[in-house]
Amino acid sequence: MSDNTNRAQLLWQDLSGTQIREQILRHHGFNGEKAHAELQDYTRHQNARRWARSTAPIWFGLSAVSAYNLSRFSVLSKSGQGAAAASIIVFPYLAISALRN
């Protein structure tokens, strides 16, 4: 079980080429066919992290718009007030989550 846990931890790390060779390919006896599934999972996770990081400016921008809407809360419609209140919670959370991954 410990080995599977360690293997899963690799998906959440940024690995250099040397680390990939040592930690993934060596584990599979340098057999690319056996390592393919794990390398594919690693690549999928790496691309998802890269995409999440690239969206952080969008979430920060939407957080600023939410703060602006909250500053004019009294002139918003009922649905606008609800959206402003929800967005001031959701958008900063998404921005922070994007940067942490």
Give a quick summary of the entry:
The chain has 101 residues and is an all-alpha fold. Helix content is 80%, strand content 0%.
Q: Which key phrases capture this entry?
A:
80% helix; mainly alpha; 4 helices; 101 residues
Our estimate of the beta-strand percent is: under 5%
Structural class by sheet pairing and helices: mainly alpha
Rounded to the nearest angstrom, the radius of gyration is 21 Å
Order of helices and strands: HHHH
Our count of helices gives 4
Oligomer: single chain
Reported for the largest beta sheet, the result is: none
> What is the total domain count?
1
Task: Give the distance, in angstroms, between the N- and C-terminal Cα atoms.
Answer: 25 Å
What is the percent of helical residues? Answer: over 70%
List how many beta strands DSSP finds: 0
Could you list the spans in which at least 5 consecutive residues all have pLDDT below 50? none
Shape summary = rod-shaped
Mean pLDDT: 87
